[in-house]
Amino acid sequence: xxxxxxxxxxxxxxxxxxxxxxxxxxxxxxxxxxxxxxxxxxxxxxxxxxxxxxxxxxxxxxxxxxxxxxxxxxxxxxxxxxxxxxxxxxxxxxxxxxxxxxxxxxxxxxxxxxxxxxxxxxxxxxxxxxxxxxxxxxxxxxxxxxxxxxxxxxxxxxx
Amino acid sequence: xxxxxxxxxxxxxxxxxxxxxxxxxxxxxxxxxxxxxxxxxxxxxxxxxxxxxxxxxxxxxxxxxxxxxxxxxxxxxxxxxxxxxxxxxxxxxxxxxxxxxxxxxxxxxxxxxxxxxxxxxxxxxxxxxxxxxxxxxxxxxxxxxxxxxxxxxxxxxxxxxxxxxxxxxxxxxxxxxxxxxxxxxxxxxxxxxxxxxxxxxxxxxxxxxxxxxxxxxxxxxxxxxxxxxxxxxxxxxxxxxxxxxxxxxxxxxxxxxxxxxxx
Lengths: 159, 263
Prior knowledge:
The complex is a heterodimer.
Chain A: E1 55-60, H1 63-66, H2 70-75, E2 79-83, H3 91-103, E3 109-115, H4 121-133, E4 140-145, E5 151-157
Parallel strand pairs in A: 1-2, 1-3, 3-4
Antiparallel strand pairs in A: 4-5
Helix pairs in contact in A: 3-4
Chain B: H1 2-5, H2 9-15, H3 18-25, H4 40-46, H5 51-65, H6 78-81, H7 91-115, H8 122-149, H9 160-184, H10 188-220, H11 223-239, H12 244-262
Helix pairs in contact in B: 3-5, 7-8, 7-10, 7-12, 8-9, 9-10
């Protein structure tokens, strides 16, 4: 693995620990905080009622799997769309949809959650590019999640 | 120690003067503060020290209060000492910090204005009145109103730190009122003294906001509240009859004028 020279986003890693302590895991069922459908960026309508004036999460596909407490910590009280900046086709449509969130749905804030892998930065760039093209301005925050679920960075982007 | 967390810092310093020196070691300058009603627990929270520094500070304060007790003072790890204090504001807070820039440029010019003060001629009075207009319209109506009518409402307005901010604003308004009366009376000394007092007040007030109050507030605000604040500030900017450009031009001209005089 140390000699890996390919795409860091595709590098194979195994985090499993042989004698891992699971005592910190809660026994209670965690309630889903998802309040809408659909969620995939190509399927959503940016002017759907649940986006009107909302705090919106634009989340890279892998984030919800890596981030252990995604529902309680990030999804709660927010509307969401998911996308993969590396694999999804026709991302110019995403650009227009983000602009429509800002100008037409008049969202309150946009939080972009991405993985630490380099290609994921594309989703933040897309959001910033859309925001620059929008008439309204909204606060944009980005959160970088490590592959083992740790929060590496959480910052506001200058509006 | 818990009983002291809810006591005013001035009261603690009066009873245990060594606490002031301990606070100074962490760049917490409560000693010269003229109000000093902030609670110890709020002061510690607001300064957002790295965890091990905060533990060390609390232990040193406890030792200053109870010198006879065996209190262990924890050491600070090297990494924490090197931690950057740079803070990234949320967009609405950044807006307030950016508005401070023009106010700071004005208060930086006040010593030159005072040096050349002229309350006898129409032109001399006009310059002071324009400066006072900048204080009343830009600093007070445009900027402080965002704080008092919007931002502070998101917090407990009875919190001591907000009382201090309100008192600073009220003190600034009092100084302006006295300046206007002094201009009418052609009282050069009072105008000059109050301008310098305003400069001192606002310099410290802005420092407190930029370095302590706003970062603390930013840490308390939810993402939703940040969005709301941003929209409300934007609404004020669109509705208010104050032109930031007018005051930017005024400061530009004044800076050029004094620059020319220096050369």
